[in-house]
Write the structure tokens for this entry.
Amino acid sequence: MMIEFLLLVMILMHIIDDFVLQSACLYKLKQKEYWESAGEKYKNDYVAGLLIHSISWSIMIMLPILLFLDLSEGALFMYGWVILMAILHACIDHEKANAKTINLWQDQLIHFVQIMVTYIVFISIFG
């Protein structure tokens, strides 16, 4: 019962971070177009916006795992996983916001796959 609750809390944390905590300001900061008018010096600053949001999202979806699973032997694995998920999230959001190769539905589907894989991996190893 607690294990299924873990997945629901992970999904809730995704919704909170991807929609509630990601303000209009941060949403703009992730977009390359927003920085183009600021000049050459700032042309790659959108990457910082992508990384800030992606790191926040990765930590948020891992919080339930920290609360429900005993990771006393897996802290290093968890930190590596957070970094991997952050990089993947940034790439996915870049495809939606800048490359415009995926839409919001596809973006969210991929993020849910990230959550499911994270859930399965951590339950398999630590649950």
Residues 2-126 form one domain. Residues 1 and 7 are 11 Å apart (CA to CA). The chain has a mean pLDDT of 87.
